[in-house]
Write a structure and sequence with these properties.
By secondary structure, the chain is mainly alpha-helical. The two termini are 31 Å apart. The longest helix is centred in the first third of the chain and has 26 residues. The protein is built from seven helices and four strands.
Length: 158
């Protein structure tokens, strides 16, 4: 059984539309190199599967209900960025794009000819800034962030 069929068997959500939406939002569809695009699509499926396992383990459900659609989308996007897959697959996909696009000015001194730039190793995900270079990924980060949404659907174990 391939990964997509395994995911489909554990959810009530239309996975074709789910995957298509994530590919667009994560800019996987913009990757020109077909080999790299296919690798990114495969990694996206593994990311979806991993977040599915996190959701099912936390909620104790046998399948993901439609009401967790938005939470699952946001968790998968966070998982994608926290693991650095955007840097691996999507960054610098367009040759015409400026490599200085993510540069942020830290300070400019009056009368000075130098400009200090902020460290570009941080990423803002849903209003929370993560330092991607220093973060050791743990699923606890996602569970803690989405605990309120997940616990609303939690089934008690006996």
């Amino acid at each position: 059984m391939n990964i997509l069929n395994e995911i489909k068997s554990r959810t009530e959500i239309n996975m074709g539309l789910f995957v298509e939406r994530l590919q667009n939002e994560l800019k996987i569809t913009n990757i020109q190199d077909e080999t790299k695009r296919n690798a990114a699509k495969e990694q996206l499926l593994y990311s979806i599967s991993d977040t599915m396992c996190i959701i099912l383990d936390t909620t104790h459900l046998s399948s993901i209900p439609k009401s967790l659609y938005t939470t699952w989308i946001r968790m998968t996007k966070d998982y994608w960025y926290l693991n650095g897959y955007d840097n691996q697959f999507v960054k610098n996909i367009d040759v015409n794009s400026s490599s200085d696009m993510n540069m942020k000015v830290k300070s400019i001194q009056e009368g000075d000819t130098t400009v200090d730039f902020a460290d570009a190793t941080s990423v803002n995900i849903n209003g929370i800034i993560y330092n991607t270079g220093t973060l050791e990924f743990s699923e606890d980060v996602l569970v803690e962030k989405y605990k309120k949404d997940l616990y609303r659907h939690r089934k008690m174990r006996w």
